[in-house]
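Quarterly update from the structural biology core.
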Amino acid sequence: MTNILEISADELQKSLDNNTDVTIIDVREDEEVAQGVIPTAKHIPLGNIPEAVGNLDPDKEYVMVCRSGRRSMNASEYLKGNGFEHVKNLEGGMLAWNGELVF
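Predicted structure, tokenized:
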């Protein structure tokens, strides 16, 4: 198991408020995303991560998100194992997110 840093929902909200250059990737399924996503988040379902990794910049910072944090941790570990050094997992996932949602 790789060592993945976690970011709290409050820390992520502060990053968004400060316009920090971070890419949020939501790995939930389509029906879950229909209930709302964090603003600016890109939707890449977990099963599509292996094929999408070639379109991602390994030098950028990523925060992976799912419902509770487990699937996004798997996605984080996959990215880290493929040379992505700046990957964090949203601790508690969308269940911990109290910020704005877009539909």
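Strands lie at 5-7, 23-26, 42-43, 62-65, 87-90.
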